Amino acid sequence: MSEELKQLRDQIDAIDNELLQLVSKRAGLAQQVGKIKKSGIVYRPEREAQILARMQEQNPGPVSNEHIKQLFTEIMSLCRALEKPMNVAYLGPNGTFSEEAALKRFGSAITGMACDSIDDVFRMVESDAANYGVVPVENSSEGAIGRTMDLLLQTPLTICGEIQLPVHQFLMAQQTDLAHISKIYSHPQSLAQCHHWLKTNLPHLPDSALINAASNADAARQAAADKQAAAIASHRAAELFGLSICAENIEDDPRNTTRFLVIGKQTVAPSGKDKTSLVMTTNNRSGAIYTLLEPLAQHGVSMSRLESRPSRTGLWQYVFFVDLEGHQQNDNVAAAMTELRDKAAFLKILGSYPAA
Ligand SMILES: O=C(O)C(=O)C[C@]1(C(=O)O)C=C[C@@H](O)C=C1
């Protein structure tokens, strides 16, 4: 070993020793914080969001902000687990984007609970079998996930956070020669998201060779059992099922992103950069939606999302899902909510939480 290499490695060893001492000291402090928390609620999304924002602001480089965020998410994950172990439910099986979203937010020091359906994720949290749930709510190219929105309307749970996950799709099979692929399994949304790529790169495949699977991970499982089949799924699914990657990032829109919500039983304090989600109905008079949006404009509250869903209680009646900038404890949002309560036929605040 050259003298220069040895000196550099000696410095890295010394820094690792210091890092270990610092991480252990931090974990000890988190344990003390855990003992002070009388409510028993360990996870504080607003505090974690503030720490991550500060670390990214102060990041001197050369490590990217994305990697700094991952590193500190993982540090907080292990500190949290020392305060109290946490169960997080998500749409399974393992290897789905929902699992990836859960790990992105909570880090790896959690017990993941893969559920069979979005309904089951809600049920697990409602019955206290899981502390939190992670559910998809919208995709940038395919739109809203209707089932999640319908369940949000009924549930007593609150939204405690959001996760934006860039969705990269991979074509995977037991071998990498595209000419040998005679069918492709995937979730219908993923097949739709890769439509153009499939037509261009696998023109020999008829539409009947594109087979719907219950999830992308299930697609990977089926491809692992059939030499002529491929699957479109996440990179993690390829690892889990021992498949080779034939093509990467095959989604038609490279900005393709899915937004997930964290659902739980707590109200989250303001972080300084928050969102508030609510659902409301009009009294069905002409101009009624204008009446509902007017208080927002008057109090200078910006709306980042407006989505309508059939109400299921009457033909051509709708419920409106609205995301606002700000926390319900902020003066302008609170004032707009007070006015909205008078004007809306029904209003439910789903939660305020740190903006992703
Ligand atoms: O500050 C707290 O409340 C802590 O419990 C510490 C800590 C952390 O590791 O910094 C851990 C869990 C919480 O979600 C927030 C922050």
TrEMBL record:
Cellular localization per UniProt: Cytoplasm
* Coiled-coil annotated spans: none
Its Enzyme Commission number(s) read: 4.2.1.51, 5.4.99.5
Using the record's annotation, list all stretches that form the ACT domain. 277-354
Q: Where is the Prephenate dehydratase domain?
A: 87-265
Q: Which residues form the Chorismate mutase domain?
A: 1-87
Set out the biological process GO terms recorded for this chain's protein.
chorismate metabolic process; L-phenylalanine biosynthetic process
Q: Which UniProt keywords apply?
A: Amino-acid biosynthesis, Aromatic amino acid biosynthesis, Cytoplasm, Isomerase, Lyase, Multifunctional enzyme, Phenylalanine biosynthesis
Taxonomic superkingdom: Bacteria
**Listed GO MF terms:** chorismate mutase activity; prephenate dehydratase activity
Tell me which residues are marked as the site Essential for prephenate dehydratase activity.
T258
Q: Name the GO cellular-component terms.
A: cytoplasm
Pathway it works in: Metabolic intermediate biosynthesis; prephenate biosynthesis; prephenate from chorismate: step 1/1; Amino-acid biosynthesis; L-phenylalanine biosynthesis; phenylpyruvate from prephenate: step 1/1
**Which Pfam family, any one of them, does this sequence belong to?**
ACT
The catalysed reaction is:
chorismate = prephenate; prephenate + H(+) = 3-phenylpyruvate + CO2 + H2O
> Its function?
Catalyzes the Claisen rearrangement of chorismate to prephenate and the decarboxylation/dehydration of prephenate to phenylpyruvate.
**Annotated NCBIfam families:** CM_P2, PRK11898.1
State the protein's name. Answer: Bifunctional chorismate mutase/prephenate dehydratase
